[in-house]
Amino acid sequence: MSNTYSLLIRGGKVMLPEGMQQVDIAVEGEKIVEIGPSLSGSADREIDATGKVVFPGTFDGHVHFDEPGRTEWETIKDGSAGLAAGGGTTFIDMPLNSSPCLLDKEEFQKKYDIASHDSYTDFGFWGGLTPDNLDRLEELAACGVVGFKAFSCYSGIPEFKGIDDYSALKGMEIIKKLGLPLMVHCENDALTAKLGAEQAAAGRDDAWAYFAAHAPITEIESITRMITFAEETGVKLIIAHASLGKSIDIINAARVRGVDVSVETIGQYLILTDEEVAALGPVAKCSPPVRSKENQPLMWAHLLAGDIDYVDSDHSPSDPSLKEGVSFMKAWGGIASVQHTLTGLLTHGYHARKVPLARIMKLTCENMPKSLRIEGKGKIAVGYDADFALIDLNREYILKADDILYKHHVSPYMGTRFKGAVDETILRGQTIMRDGKIIGTPRGRMIMCKG
Ligand SMILES: NC(=O)N[C@H]1NC(=O)NC1=O
Ligand SMILES: [Zn+2]
């Protein structure tokens, strides 16, 4: 007797953890139940994936969807639609730029309620660590945050204070005990402030002045210091959006010493250069800034060598008015990018630099849920959630405003060519995006960490 499944995906080239194979995938309800060549049986729905690559749904560990309180910047509904359009099935939302920020259990409940109602994809939350909430970390852990996020510098949001050395040390001690990771945005505030003041005194407020204020040493010094605290406390440290080859060298050296540190980068540092950002203007402003064209190949070399653990989007949009008609120095620092990570890596990595798809899969799907000990996500394997991105590796398109599903249709990549596109995204066995359009209503759920 043959089986009846709810979904069969046939004929695709499937990215399994062990590599690409021509196999069929059988789904029952929300889970993958069988994987093999030419599976027998029928299904309520069959997808012919001939000519396509079946990727796991991507897992974006770093987005700012800004709810509650800053819905004119971004919303969970629109942000998760953008994620799904780019092949994503799970995001982890940052504790800022919502208002209030996620610093205690009351705020957790508000975010959770909105996401449970509005998210097209599955989701989780980073709790905030600031000097003000050392006594609230335990309750946030009990709510189910995947870990904590801190800034070693000004965060851009006045109510989300950067950690001083005391709260870094004490926060790490507490977070270590809670068994969770800490992600830190690393820039040396004292230095960026003074270097910025030098630029202002010279009458400069353009992109190059901003790059000079956020010089490489400001990132390198802060990463080094956070590693020192992590080494002392034993906390699992994740360096957020490293932008420099040298930052990865420092992290590698710490790992050799046995420090539990992993590193994220973002598509912008792999795709853009400082010269391009200066030409594009505030739409391409982020912190740390996009670096030089000499640095960019170092990032790709580290990525190919397996030294980088995660490529996330750091989708951090703002009200467009904060980017328009203001100097580069004054403009909001953050780039809208949640839809473009995978297609960006296919274009600039797989096609342009022969980066293996297996590496791209680890960076965008597999490594983050593994680090966060999230069950059932990030891999195409029996027992895992039936989350997929169906990719046409050779489809080319030029990004237009209408293609964008997140709230504000702005992007530093507007008008640029991509090669490698997501045709369909499937979350727990059901299609949520096809041909650039959302299908169905929000049914995202909070992901769970292993106890
Ligand atoms: N607050 C906030 O979103 N900051 C983000 N923006 C950015 O460019 N880097 C960040 O960390
Ligand atoms: Zn961020």
Automatic annotation (TrEMBL):
Post-translational modification: Carboxylation allows a single lysine to coordinate two zinc ions.
Hydrolase is among the record's keywords: yes
Top-rank lineage group of the source organism: Bacteria
InterPro entries from the UniProt entry: Allantoinase, Allantoinase_bact, Amidohydro-rel, DHOase/Allantoinase_Hydrolase, Metal-dep_hydrolase_composite, Metal_Hydrolase
Reactions catalysed according to its record: (S)-allantoin + H2O = allantoate + H(+)
UniProt-listed Enzyme Commission number(s): 3.5.2.5
Signal sequence, renumbered to the chain: none
Residues annotated as binding Zn(2+) 1: 62, 64, 149, 314
Keywords: Hydrolase, Metal-binding, Purine metabolism, Zinc
Pathway: Nitrogen metabolism; (S)-allantoin degradation; allantoate from (S)-allantoin: step 1/1
Complex and partners: Homotetramer.
The name this protein goes by in its record: Allantoinase
Organism: Mitsuokella multacida DSM 20544
Phylogenetic lineage: Bacteria, Bacillati, Bacillota, Negativicutes, Selenomonadales
Gene name tied to this protein: allB
